[in-house]
Every structure is written in structure tokens, then in C-alpha cells.
């Protein structure tokens, strides 16, 4: 059985299909039609479908942006090179942000940092996103009525700085995208570069993580037990991380070093949600060119070039890989 098909079977049999099954809310939208054509056989994650519908029903152009409510917990995972610069990169690292590949075994107890669905802004339709300011800070602040002296302005500035910075690692590819279509196309382009597939044509799968936090909470650390682990295709993967911004912006990158991807089914052991939670995870197999000051090394008691460093993808972020066969 294909690994991604096994992923779907695991979700269906455990009742946790919300992490990957398409949601009727986004059915028929241009973004949904694009997804079906670009990723045949991969249902749109419910988290993404919900954000697409929110972008249609609740325009961020008329709703106030609050940085404290739109700051994904996993921003600290993005930079593996020089670990310095914006506050996004220097934020305190929550427990459970990183783990070792050896921990991905059924029965392993893990502390996991999770986030609420309320922390991610809506995905704008592509034709709207193309008309909304992005790269110029003053234009963004004016369009969304954000005071230049506010915490929200600082958050927007940090995201723009991170998006505009050059790759921090040799061989790394990166891009920031403002629509679902641009996100899928960027991931495809990154995987085509260096692909061994004839004619440079690749067929992608995509995975996301379910939210495990009540809407009233932004972030939460909770104890889980690994219930199932499914290996996903490929040894090169693109992570597209939801950024804090008035509307959905994805920071997509691929390090240029080998990686391994998994779908991990987690069961709470601390009295939280009784339903299993499915998380997409990526393990970086070669960290030899990472900044020695990266917090993952201190947290895991390892060093550059040591054991593989893994992390879960945050809610509504996307992990892409190349299918073994179309």
C-alpha cells in the first residue's frame, strides 16, 4: 500500500480524518479546483479548506488584525542558519518544539506544543491576494489600518523582513506566498529543482496538522502518547509555514539536505481532547551546516551533524513531498 494511502486509512479508522479530508466549505472555489488538479489523489486538509472559506466570508481588509492572536507557535523552526535577527527567530522556544527521530515509536510519550485554529489568518482568494499590498510595510499598515507604533506593526515588519532575507543555508530554497495556488506552485518548483525524475516533472503529496487547542487558547503544551507513525514518500521535502500577518502568508523553504516525513497519530494522556490528533512531522537528517546556537541542539542535547532533528508542522502549515509514483 502506498504510504499516503496508509496515512488516509489510519485517519479514517481512528476517527481523526479532520486533518486531511476535504471540507465541503471550500468545495467549488477556484483554490479547491486548483488543488484537485495540482495534487490528484491528495484531499485538501480541512484546516486549509476552512481558511479558504474564511478568506471569502470574513475579509481581513475589514477585520482588525491582532498580532497576539495570529502568531503561530512554530515560527522558531524556520531558520537553521544564523539564528538571529527578528523577534520571530529569537522568541522563546516552547517545550516539545523539537524531538529526536528515535522518539517516533508507538508508545512514546511526548510533550507537544500545539496551537488553536484561531491563531492563523484566513487565506485570500488568489485574485484578491494579487491586489493586496505585501512587500511594502507602509502600504500593508495603511491597507489594514494598523498603527505604525503598535505591536501588530512590529509583527508585520518581522514577517516582511524574514520573507525578504536571503536563504540562511547554502543550497536552501525559500519563498513567501500569499495564496494557496502560489504556495503549491512554489513547493512544486522547489522539488523540481534537483529532482531525478525525467523531464523534471514531479507529482506531489501534501499533509497538514490538526489543531489540538480550544479556540480560547493560543498555544498549549500537552502530553501525548504516539499511537501510530506512518512514513511519507520522499527524501526531500518543502515546509510551508503559516506566518503572522493580516492575511495568510506562507514561508516555504527546502534546506537542500535529506529529510524524512511522517504522519504521527497522537493520543492525549493529560485530560485534554479525547480524540486522537494527527500531526505532520519532518526530520532533518543532516544538520551539519546548521548554526550551533540553534535552540534545537540545546533542547535535544545534540550538535550540528548529530542525531536527526525533528519537529511537527504547526496547524494549517503544509508539508509537501514527491510521490513515489503518480
Automatic annotation (TrEMBL):
Chain segments annotated as transmembrane: none
Residues of the BURP domain: 98-323
Keywords: Signal
Any one Pfam family match given in the protein's UniProt record, by short name: BURP
InterPro entries on file: BURP (IPR044816), BURP_dom (IPR004873)
Database matches in PROSITE patterns: BURP
Signal peptide feature range: 1-19
PANTHER family: BURP DOMAIN PROTEIN RD22, BURP DOMAIN PROTEIN USPL1-LIKE
Protein name: BURP domain-containing protein
Organism for this UniProt entry: Sorghum bicolor
Amino acid at each position: 500500500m502506498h504510504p499516503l494511502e496508509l496515512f488516509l486509512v489510519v485517519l479514517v479508522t481512528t476517527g481523526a480524518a479532520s486533518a486531511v479530508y476535504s471540507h465541503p466549505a471550500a468545495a467549488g472555489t477556484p483554490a479547491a479546483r486548483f488543488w484537485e488538479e495540482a495534487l490528484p489523489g491528495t484531499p485538501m486538509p480541512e484546516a486549509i479548506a476552512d481558511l479558504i472559506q474564511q478568506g471569502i466570508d470574513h475579509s481581513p481588509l475589514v477585520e482588525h488584525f491582532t498580532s497576539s492572536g495570529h502568531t503561530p507557535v512554530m515560527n522558531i523552526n524556520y531558520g537553521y542558519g544564523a539564528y538571529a535577527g527578528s523577534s520571530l527567530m529569537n522568541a522563546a522556544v516552547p517545550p516539545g518544539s523539537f524531538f529526536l527521530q528515535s522518539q517516533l515509536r508507538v508508545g512514546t510519550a511526548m510533550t507537544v506544543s500545539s496551537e488553536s485554529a484561531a491563531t492563523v489568518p484566513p487565506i485570500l482568494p488568489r485574485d484578491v491576494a494579487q491586489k493586496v499590498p505585501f512587500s511594502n510595510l507602509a502600504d500593508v499598515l495603511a491597507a489594514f489600518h494598523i498603527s505604525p507604533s503598535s505591536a501588530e506593526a512590529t509583527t508585520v515588519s518581522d514577517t516582511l523582513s524574514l520573507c525578504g532575507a536571503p536563504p540562511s543555508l547554502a543550497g536552501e530554497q525559500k519563498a513567501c506566498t500569499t495564496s494557496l495556488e502560489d504556495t503549491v506552485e512554489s513547493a512544486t518548483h522547489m522539488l523540481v529543482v534537483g529532482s531525478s525524475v525525467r523531464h523534471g516533472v514531479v507529482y506531489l503529496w501534501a499533509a497538514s496538522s490538526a489543531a489540538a487547542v480550544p479556540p480560547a487558547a493560543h498555544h498549549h503544551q500537552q502530553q501525548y502518547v504516539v499511537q501510530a507513525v506512518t512514513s511519507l514518500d520522499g527524501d526531500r521535502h518543502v515546509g510551508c509555514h503559516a506566518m503572522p500577518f493580516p492575511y495568510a502568508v506562507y514561508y516555504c523553504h527546502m534546506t537542500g539536505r535529506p529529510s524524512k516525513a511522517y504522519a504521527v497519530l497522537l493520543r492525549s494522556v493529560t485530560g485534554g481532547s479525547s480524540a486522537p490528533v494527527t500531526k505532520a512531522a519532518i526530520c532533518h537528517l543532516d544538520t551539519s551546516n546548521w548554526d550551533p546556537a540553534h535552540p534545537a541542539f540545546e533542547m535535544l542535547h545534540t550538535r550540528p551533524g548529530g542525531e536527526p532533528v525533528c519537529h511537527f508542522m504547526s496547524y494549517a502549515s503544509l508539508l509537501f513531498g514527491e510521490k513515489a509514483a503518480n
